[in-house]
């Protein structure tokens, strides 16, 4: 969905959940639509997990 996260995940394959929470500068704007925000975060964490799994192969 947002390329902002995709670019960062390519740079940091070992990105942590807490790092992701601090990255977005528009966190306050996303608070009213919490459902969407958590879905986006979930996708990012899934991608980070995939990158991590691939790096051990």
Protein architecture, described:
The protein is built from four helices and no strands. 72% of the residues lie in helices and 0% in strands. By secondary structure, the protein is mostly helical. It has helices spanning 3-11, 17-22, 27-30, 34-55. It comes from Rhizophagus irregularis (strain DAOM 181602 / DAOM 197198 / MUCL 43194) (Arbuscular mycorrhizal fungus). InterPro entries: RNaseH_sf. This is Tc1-like transposase DDE domain-containing protein.
Summarize the structure.
By secondary structure, this protein is mostly helical.
Rg result: 12 Å
Secondary-structure-derived class:
mainly alpha
Number of strands: 0
SS strand fraction: under 5%
The main sheet comes to:
none
Helix content: over 70%
What is the straight-line distance between the termini?
A: 27 Å
Secondary-structure element series:
HHHH
Low-confidence stretches: 1-5, 26-30
General shape:
rod-shaped
Integer average pLDDT: 58
Number of helices: 4
Organism: Rhizophagus irregularis (strain DAOM 181602 / DAOM 197198 / MUCL 43194) (Arbuscular mycorrhizal fungus)
Protein name: Tc1-like transposase DDE domain-containing protein
GO molecular function: nucleic acid binding
InterPro entries: RNaseH_sf (IPR036397)
Key terms:
disordered N terminus; mainly alpha; rod-shaped; 4 helices; 57 residues; single chain
Per-chain topology:
Layout: H1 3-11, H2 17-22, H3 27-30, H4 34-55
Helix pairs in contact: 1-4
